[in-house]
Design goal:
139 residues; alpha+beta; 5-stranded antiparallel β-sheet; 6 helices; 43% helix; 18% strand; elongated
Length: 139
């Protein structure tokens, strides 16, 4: 007697979540993608998932890859890792997510641009100034 297959399963093929994340180049290795899913850094439809969860076209993913966060819609499936241009066709990032990432990137750049540590050790005059500032802060 032949096995009957579910017609719905045949119409909606899917790919493992960790494989898709790796193929879409969100993570460098499949092991890193699996670890991110297991630690709750990837949400499917707002809920935590397992690495073996099947991703289908139309799913909404929320991916946290420190220090960035992505909100993407799955447009296509892939099981192999290809060029970056092909990987970018697998998903569409929301405008809100793109704007939030740009704002966070600008904020991090501004934080880095503020204080510039000296290239050399402070000389005698600079040490006295630092010591004086230290005493001023104690008041």
């Amino acid at each position: 007697m032949p096995l009957r297959q579910d017609p719905l399963a045949m119409q909606t093929p899917g790919v493992r979540l960790d494989v898709w994340l790796w193929a879409a180049r969100f993570f460098k290795t499949r092991a890193l993608a699996k670890q991110a899913v297991e630690t709750g850094k990837v949400l499917v439809g707002g809920q935590r998932a397992k690495p073996a969860r099947t991703v289908r076209v139309g799913d909404k993913l929320h991916i946290t890859r420190q220090p960035e966060q992505f909100e993407v819609d799955v447009l296509a499936l892939a099981q192999v890792r290809g060029p970056a241009q092909v990987a970018q066709t697998l998903y569409r990032e929301s405008e809100a997510s793109r704007a939030a990432r740009a704002e966070a990137r600008a904020l991090r750049a501004a934080e880095r641009a503020g204080f510039q540590p000296p290239q050399t050790r402070p000389d005698k005059r600079a040490r006295r100034l630092l010591r004086a500032l230290g005493d001023f802060d104690a008041l």
